[in-house]
Amino acid sequence: MIYFNSDYLEGAHPAIMERLMQTNMEQTVGYGEDEYCAAAREKIKAACQAPDADVHFLVGGTLTNTTVIASVLRPYQGVLSATSGHINCHETGAIESSGHKVLTLPTDNGKITAKQVEDYYNWHHFSPDYEHMVMPGMVYISLPTEGGTLYSKAELTELYEVCKKCSLPLFIDGARLGYGLTCDDCDLTLPEVARLCDIFYIGGNKVGALFGEAVVVMNPALKKDFRFMMKQRGGMLAKGRLLGLQFDTLFTDDLYFKISRHANEMAKKIHAIFEDNGYPFFFNSPTNQQYPIMSDAELAVLGKEFGYEYWERVDETHSAIRFAASWATTEENVAALRKGVEALKK
Amino acid sequence: MIYFNSDYLEGAHPAIMERLMQTNMEQTVGYGEDEYCAAAREKIKAACQAPDADVHFLVGGTLTNTTVIASVLRPYQGVLSATSGHINCHETGAIESSGHKVLTLPTDNGKITAKQVEDYYNWHHFSPDYEHMVMPGMVYISLPTEGGTLYSKAELTELYEVCKKCSLPLFIDGARLGYGLTCDDCDLTLPEVARLCDIFYIGGNKVGALFGEAVVVMNPALKKDFRFMMKQRGGMLAKGRLLGLQFDTLFTDDLYFKISRHANEMAKKIHAIFEDNGYPFFFNSPTNQQYPIMSDAELAVLGKEFGYEYWERVDETHSAIRFAASWATTEENVAALRKGVEALKK
Amino acid sequence: MIYFNSDYLEGAHPAIMERLMQTNMEQTVGYGEDEYCAAAREKIKAACQAPDADVHFLVGGTLTNTTVIASVLRPYQGVLSATSGHINCHETGAIESSGHKVLTLPTDNGKITAKQVEDYYNWHHFSPDYEHMVMPGMVYISLPTEGGTLYSKAELTELYEVCKKCSLPLFIDGARLGYGLTCDDCDLTLPEVARLCDIFYIGGNKVGALFGEAVVVMNPALKKDFRFMMKQRGGMLAKGRLLGLQFDTLFTDDLYFKISRHANEMAKKIHAIFEDNGYPFFFNSPTNQQYPIMSDAELAVLGKEFGYEYWERVDETHSAIRFAASWATTEENVAALRKGVEALKK
Amino acid sequence: MIYFNSDYLEGAHPAIMERLMQTNMEQTVGYGEDEYCAAAREKIKAACQAPDADVHFLVGGTLTNTTVIASVLRPYQGVLSATSGHINCHETGAIESSGHKVLTLPTDNGKITAKQVEDYYNWHHFSPDYEHMVMPGMVYISLPTEGGTLYSKAELTELYEVCKKCSLPLFIDGARLGYGLTCDDCDLTLPEVARLCDIFYIGGNKVGALFGEAVVVMNPALKKDFRFMMKQRGGMLAKGRLLGLQFDTLFTDDLYFKISRHANEMAKKIHAIFEDNGYPFFFNSPTNQQYPIMSDAELAVLGKEFGYEYWERVDETHSAIRFAASWATTEENVAALRKGVEALKK
User: Fold this and answer.
1) Do C228 and A99 touch (CB under 8 A)?
2) Which of B20, B70, B77, B250 measures 20 to 30 Å from B125, CA to CA?
3) What sequence ranges are listed for the domain Aromatic amino acid beta-eliminating lyase/threonine aldolase (chains A, B, C, D) (predicted)?
4) Shortest CA distance to B155 belongs to which of B182, B190, B183, B193?
5) Average pLDDT rounded to a whole number, residues B31-56
6) Domain shared by B249 and B273, yes or no
7) Interface contact flag, A97 D328, Cβ < 8 Å
8) Residues C247-267: pLDDT tens digits?
9) Sign of the CA dihedral running A151, A157, A160, A165
């Protein structure tokens, strides 16, 4: 059985495991105040060309999203998100559990537009029922989105302009940021992403780390007391150096980007497998996640040898499924998948 | 200026004011444990033909909705509601503030169907991402709805059957219950409503009381410690007897229903005013709220003499507005409105 | 049976009832935006000599405390309070329910000192575990306290100086403010109270109103979006004019202070009854609540004719109890109590 | 510099690192549903002699405590804890953030007694203000406590009897459970601990794991939907197998207990160092944490070579400090400490 279900099927990049082994018996202080965290922070700030940013390390996307959002919002404010946003769909109501409504904007491709945000802001702001409705307090987007799609530099710039105009901090969920930034279609760099939002995170868990996400706080107004929020929500790892070590490794010699690029190469091959065999796609994704549409009968056969993620029913006999490549995906496994798909056609 | 904006423009029915005056200097114990609350509870239980129900009095719809919903749900559960549900739109995120997501079902007329609830339940229950999504934990409907529409006995029966099948307690927001039960189109009685849900409230604030709502807990599993919830959420009035006195009065000699029927009579006349003058309606409401669609130019003129509630833009030059009748609406004011509308046509 | 259990046994001062009757059929807009609320706000601001203050009306002390505190604090902050503070003891965890810890300071007489606040602030601020502990974010006191005691002008001034030094907004719970300000021992005026805190409320429920509390926001930094908080927490009364009318009446011709003074006169007589008969007191209260200590045997006898509030066990055979006078307490009832207590000694 | 500040200074036991390396490139499903988690669960259940228990893996003590407590309590309930309990002192209000009050019981040695719990329960239950106070809903203890002390089998049995009598589920925080169970003074076994509570956790983070805690749910009533709670609060690790692998290793060949015993041996030597040199102790701890009292002048000298945790000021010139031994503490470092302490006496 070969699995393409997700990008967190394996452990960590070998370079990270090696660092963890080498440093295992060293003694460091806890809670992210050690020298490895300090070094990782410096490398991330350099990579972002953001010398004044604050960088914090947390474990897990849900915890990171909740901590950031609960830190930014006032109690009566909500967060604008695409209906397909991870915070709206797949975090068991973590945001609501922290007291805040997710205010959803419709989307086909996982993205929201500057116009949608501005219209929502105006609709609320000029309503006679203003105080009876949740005030939009920030904007959440994923880069790449849950469907593997990407904001262009023009789209992100326009969105951020509106956010600033409406005083809505923009938060970018970068759980798969590496896969977004290194795909062929992307015209954004990491420093540009950093400059075009107020706070974002660089996902490690799905991009080569054992676990861990690095929150980068660009807007000084959002920096105050963030570590209190982390501790309260359970996100301050006692052995914080484990996170520092991993991000230090990922941001040494461009490892984060190199392994992301590899995943995208593998994803292109996966895309070609399905395209060559005539399958349509549910999302037009240039990144590491691919979403072919197949008949349920074919899925039953393919599923005997290959793991995939069931995404959504398309019609009575067809479904969209996800194949994810990652830093760990091998040419061998992709070649086996090609054979498996081609066999369906015989 | 004559106002039709809402059903809470005036104080209370004179019979209530009289009772409050008569009893003003009496001494009673606090927090709803006095004899007036006891008497009101008995009358409400009798009117509901529900001798085993628990009855609690609170002040305000938002507080009542939040207290009930937070009492019923487990932390990871959400409440199913029409997108137009009051809890989803006009309570500034009170439900989310208590930690719970409002899980919305689309609607045109303010109602949701048994099938929608069952489909949502099944979609969640059989999803591979089951534990990553908010579990539906109860169902919220308004009777009548925010658009003045009504569930038929057949619809409510079918909905409640599905709720029981899916173990989803059904909560009916009866902020305007009297106006619903006494309109011509309604085939439900109060005892039937009580029997077709797990918990509901009888709104006083909009139906003749100065303020106050009576929560009726039908399902024994939902009774435990409800007063703790009320106190914690600020809903336990020190001078509880004020609520008891009001509901005791409303449920003496059918006053609640008599004054509701009056409002519906007035609403029918309001409806006729607009219908006779060729205006379409945004909702097909048989109850005390009427939603004609008018041109913005006409609204500007009409608004000089008559207060109405702006509801929603319909197209670039037309809007839906609300005219609400209540227990306090007079024939004189309705006659004046007819003149005002007819004048627009000249 | 004559009750002295509390100061919310009767309805409202007759002048208030009269106003409610007179205006009952008037139409006003809702949610506190009517002319009666506007007038009441002006009178309260004048009485406080605080023309720039914001004034909001809510129903109930628990709701008011929770709304104010949740509005002031950041998620990781708590509120400093005497262990005996109402928010710590008798609100069923309403503050915690909004996500905040009550940080308690020990007290014998219901008051906390400037030194206690400063020491706590410093202890937290200079702790190596700083971020692992709840940050004190504001200070809560009651004036008068739950034991009927009072802060002197010097004490309050010193406390507020420390609060400002430590950037801790000071919130005064004035549920019984009138009874505090008009007692013989009080050297504070309403404008002084207003100037010596950041936000406070003037209690109506226990001081002549049917219900209602008036929040006065002195510190401009705490004003923003307070009405959103009110609506979210269920504290925005639809018929807001009921609150406006009551406070307008209370702040016309000094009614609020006149009726408070009456209560204190009655309380002095109650105090004398117990003192003359040799009973010690649990608190040294100069205000409307008196706390004699009696034997349980005597209480059993007295309790047959007179209602009191059980306060606390003092030793195996004695208890502290509360007798509360109010705006509604009559000379007749006090005289009857004297006879009842004297009878115990025969 | 040699550190004794805590038991989370190093990485993980080498046997764990080896397993992580060996399995690094294997593919497994996520979220704790892999075979390593399954194996670890079986071993833990066997070690607890609790074949029907549920076992869940989370990252971090604060997150584990919050998830368990928020899962057990109803909204109006609080958790009874020693004032010194970790949830009360050092989790930045995480429990309150989930809506619940920590109800504190005074303690000198970190422990609470059966009598304290029963008295609190009765005091609340029979109070006339019952509904105005937070209802105790569960009991939290640490084993060993934050001061390194231990409950005896008799004490724990008596406590649990009272908990059952009062319907208060007992939760044991076992962040350092191994160090408790293997010290000389302990008369409890793991199966006994499991049988004497409703839910507990076995700490990995401080006892040989890189990170991770294993929650064991003994009481069937507390099992339902626990994974929803984990996901909502951010505690469901995507690569759950990392936790499974670690606990599988720790519960193979008694590794968890062997390394715990080593720590206690080292702690006895540390204890002897201070005892031999005439220092008193702040807590009488038989476990891995030792709390000598030293003069501030001596601390300044000792602190140049040795890291310790500052605990509490004892008097104007003396402080209590903590020296923690762990699975990783070496004989060499302990010998160096002896030299350092003895040097102070010269």
Assistant:
1) no
2) B70
3) 5-243
4) B193
5) 98
6) no
7) no
8) 999 999 999 999 999 999 999
9) negative
The residue assigned the tokens 């963030």 is: A226
Is the Cβ pair A231, D328 closer than 8 Å? no
Domain boundary among B237, B253, B269: B253
Cis ω before C106 (30° cut-off from 0): no
pTM attached to this predicted model = 0.97
Q: What is the pLDDT, as a whole number, of residue C285?
A: 96
Regarding whether D49 and D134 lie in a shared domain, the answer is yes
pLDDT given at position A297:
96
**Inter-chain touch A97–D232, beta carbons under 8 Å:** yes
Cα of A225 to nearest chain C Cα, Å? 8
Dihedral pair phi/psi, residue B19, rounded to 5°: -60, -40
D118/D129 Cα distance (integer angstroms): 18
pLDDT of residue A345: 84
- Nearest CB to D75; choose among C97, C101, C129: C97
As a dihedral over the C-alpha atoms of residue C332, residue C338, residue C339, residue C343, rounded to 10 degrees, the angle is 160
The region, left, alpha or beta by phi > 0 then psi within -120 to 50, assigned to residue C58 is beta
What is the block-wise mean pLDDT of chain A (346 residues), using blocks of 10 residues?
95 98 96 97 98 98 98 98 97 98 97 98 94 98 97 98 98 98 97 98 98 98 98 96 98 98 98 97 96 97 96 95 97 98 92
| Domain match, C234 and C261 both | no
CA–CA separation, B332 vs B141, rounded Å? 34
Q: Do C131 and A227 touch (CB under 8 A)?
A: yes
Q: Which residues in chain D land under pLDDT 70?
A: none
Letter for the amino acid at A2?
I
Task: Tell me how close the Cα of C228 comes to any Cα of chain A, in angstroms.
Answer: 5
Query: Measured between beta carbons, which residues in chain C are less than 8 angstroms from residue B259?
Result: none
Considering only alpha carbons, which residue of chain D is nearest residue C98? D99
The string of DSSP letters for A313-344 reads EEETTEEEEEEE--TT--HHHHHHHHHHHHHH
- Residue C142, C-beta contacts closer than 8 angstroms, at least 6 positions apart: C82, C85, C86, C110, C172, C173, C174, C175, C176
Do B78 and A100 count as a contact with CB atoms less than 8 A apart? no
Question: Is there a contact between A101 and B99 if contact means CB atoms under 8 Å apart?
Answer: no
C8 CB neighbours in chain B (<8 A) are: 30, 238-239
**Domain closes at, from C227, C253, C279:** C253
- Read off the amino acid at residue A94: A
> How many domains does one find in chain D?
2
* pLDDT per residue as tens digits for the range B79-121: 999 999 999 999 999 999 999 999 999 999 999 999 999 999 9
Residues of A in contact with D59 (CB under 8 A): 59-60, 237
Please tell me which of the candidates B89, B91, B99 has its beta carbon nearest to residue A96.
Answer: B99
- C227 and C301 both lie in a single domain: no
Domain identity same for A56 and A137? yes
Q: Chain C contacts of D310, Cβ < 8 Å?
A: 128
Would the CB atoms of A11 and D239 count as touching at under 8 Å?
A: yes
CA separation for the pair B308, B293 (Å, rounded): 12
Neighbours of chain C (3+ CB pairs under 8 A): A, B, D
Interface residue of D76, D96, D119, D233 to substitute, partner C, most C CBs within 10 Å = D96
The predicted structure's pLDDT at residue A69: 98
Q: How far is C94 from chain B (nearest CA, A)?
A: 5
Residue among B26, B100, B232, B323 with most chain C CBs within 10 A, to mutate: B232
Q: State the residue range of the domain holding B238.
A: 14-253
Residue of D119, C80, C42, C67 lying closest to A76 (CA atoms): C67
Residue owning tokens 């945004």: B282
Q: Are B206 and B148 in contact (CB under 8 A)?
A: no
Q: How do residues C281-315 score in pLDDT, each as one tens digit?
A: 999 999 999 999 999 999 999 999 999 999 999 99
